[in-house]
Amino acid sequence: MAQYQITLNNDTLKDLFQRDRGVAKLVEQVLNRVLQAQVTEQLKAAPYERTDERQGYRNGTVPHTLTTRVGRLILRVPRVRNGEFSTELFARYQRSEQALVLAQMEMVINGVSTHKVAKITEELCGTEFSKSTVSELCKRLDPIVHAWNNRSLREHQYPFVFVDALVLRIRENDRVRARAAMIATGLNEEGYREVLGLMLGDSESEASWREFFSWLKSRDLRGVDIVVSDSHSGLVKALQTEFQGCTWQRCQTHFMRNLLDATPKALQEEVYKRVRAILDAPDMKTARMLKNDFVEEFADNAPKAVQVLEDGFDDVTAVLALPDRYRERLRTTNGVERLNEEIRRRERVIRIFPNRESPIRLLGALLMRINPCRLNTYSRY
Question: How many domains are there within the chain?
């Protein structure tokens, strides 16, 4: 590594202690001296030096502005006659600034608003960064997120798939609109849970879900046997169309909420215990027996709850056909709900996304970092 001897003048030393930009002026003078030392080393001759080893001649300097953490620097980059001066100084600086950009991206992914990111960066760098500048820097995530979100799924089969959606507020054409972010998570044959993909739909309609499922299949999603979700009508209809032959497991957590909403308040505690016993039955035969007992006992006092149970019984107990070791994690969408909580924690900071690309960038980067994880409770299916 080259070593340079730097001499500082008195004015620079005074600036260091007397002015706000003292550190910046010091760094500026040091770097300019480094540039002069490097051009001397490259030409193998000092200014006006006569030597047989000289490789060229100086041709003045050109100003170069560099924004750093200590402020804005004006460097005088040497020019070489009949040649080009080369230095690693700016390459090293660019690597350092790339680390800063990555730190900014990380802050945004972790839920820090672009306004706060701009203020933090200003404190670190000694120069102002606007919210729009930070947003532009974060757009460097787009090709990375796009490549991940459209990757091929052919490497594995996914017998178990969890799907859910959450509503986001997005500004479009100067109006704030509610849009559905649809997310699919799959459990592959090796026991790994993996985020399969994310898509932004106009709503949770059947058409939006069909487009989402068709997109997953176009990326070679295969081997789907059981799909776990809530009972949104558009979602269920799309499943029946796009994944014919697979079993739908209705989320038991959502089902229990719907059933208790249809139950008189005085009976809710007793109804919960009885229905919980049905869902936790060791096999389908026992579950049907407990269901029939429940219907007989509560037909008069809680008719609406009885109707909800009878209408949803087959879908909410589909998991009972599987071995015990699969049931706990496959009977609800709680894993996806936990994922949604992480998204909501960041979405609450932003509140309203400025465009449709922004939520894909933020949510996609978050999901990439979470994905994949090992679920040791599953064995090979």
Answer: 4
Same structural domain, 37 and 81: yes
Residue 115 and residue 64 share a domain:
no
Q: Are residues 242 and 345 in the same domain?
A: yes
In terms of residue numbers, what domain contains 116? 107-149
Q: What is the DSSP letter of 342?
A: H
In angstroms, rounded to a whole number, what is the distance separating the alpha carbons of residues 116 and 74? 28
Give pLDDT tens digits for 235-294.
999 998 999 889 999 999 999 999 999 999 999 999 999 999 999 999 999 999 999 999
145 and 182 housed in the same domain = no
Cβ atoms within 10 Å of 308's Cβ, excluding its own: 21
Rg of the Cα atoms in the chain: 31
Do 235 and 166 have their domain in common?
Answer: yes
- Of 103, 102, 104, 84, which Cα lies nearest the Cα of 38? 84
DSSP string of 142-165? HHHHHHHHT---TTS--SEEEEEE
pTM: 0.66
Can you tell me the distance from the alpha carbon of 185 to that of 208, in angstroms, rounded to the nearest whole number? 17
> d(Cα 168, Cα 350) in Å, to the nearest integer?
10
Distance CA 362, CA 367 (A): 9
User: What Å distances lie between residue 253 and 13, 46, 277, 328, CA to CA?
Assistant: 69, 79, 14, 12
Q: State whether 344 and 207 are in the same domain.
A: yes
Looking at the fold, whether 168 and 217 belong to one and the same domain comes out as yes
